[in-house]
Amino acid sequence: MNNELLAVLEYLEQERGIDREVLVQAIESALMSASKKSIHPANDLDVKVDPRSGDIKAWAKLEVVDAIPTCDQIVFERAKEKNPEVQLGDVISWEVTPKNFGRIAAQTAKQAISQLLRRAEKEAIRDEFEPHLGEILNGQVRSIEGNNIIVEIGKTEGVISARDRIQGEQYMAGNRINAVLVKVDISNPGPPLVLSRSHSDFVKRLFEQEVSEIHDNVVEIKGIAREAGGRTKIAVTSNDDRVDPIGACVGMRGMRVKAITQELGGERMDIIRWDEDIAKYAISSLQPAEPKRVEVNEERKSINVYVTPEESRKAFGKKAQNVRLASKLLGWGLNIITEEIKLETNSFDDQIEKTIEHLSETLQIDFSVAEKLVNNGFVSPAGIKGAELDDLTEIEGIELEDAEIIMNAVSDLDE
Asked: Is the distance from CB of 237 to CB of 244 less than 8 angstroms?
């Protein structure tokens, strides 16, 4: 077993980069647990491994007695043979190393050693990769397991789950792949590196790589709202009046942003100018729509955006994606109001209430349900029609049953 241990120590130290002292401590702990049943019944047992020779010795703490000893005792005469100065009542270390640990003890020790070494190896991985959280890593696809992509990154493995993939992307074993590191999970029995291509930080890091002005802090990213594989809105500002933040991100002939969209599989990219004036920021966030005017309610953190019927479709976007992303980017509720729904009164609260009443009566739904819809940007049947069932159930307070009733009501309007 000595030669086998030495081989394991040598391999793991050189090939895996695990410190030999850490390995020896793990082995000693494992052997201690395994040996208590097979070496000696004493409660206080110590096992030591020589890190250079691989020699293993076991020591028991025994009390010197003058009677028939128990498992934790040794008779005085026998103890005196090795230590003439020993006295009755002394507690001495007594070597109890057998010539052979035995098959069962050895197998148990190997299993425990294997577990502890895996943990030590994962801790080394954690120490190596945690400083790189939020950074883009490049690896090679090792395999596809279900909906998960297993990626080799050096001597370590990472996983991209289904929710962290960009919808529609296909990979095969051997393909190179970029992804942002979002977590190092050594408690997970699978790959310890959790990677993502759908996270908003992936887009942020790509812009930092492609746009030197962002890397140099001349241009600053103020916010990102993303639906991976579909569309991303990114708000930027310049810390230098001489530098146009949007132009810097787009690049000459659009080369910079094209490189990013190609990496993202053609994902649409809306680059807008950030503004500390929330009204101006809201107008920019709804591009390509051109609102006529906006009304801001600071207390509710909501904004009424008035558009013409022609601009209404652009403001909502396909399946209400444009208004949904704009709302996420702002962190405010956006209410898109077309001129047909615009009310004669100038009172903001009256306008909101009339809009809710109109939607409630049109769809024959409860006022409270209509209020939730309006507060989340669904102010007309046309806007709801472009949404998915999941878009409605994501609204707090709207259950699946409510969402189905609303969608059925919108469909009935077309019949």
From this structure: no
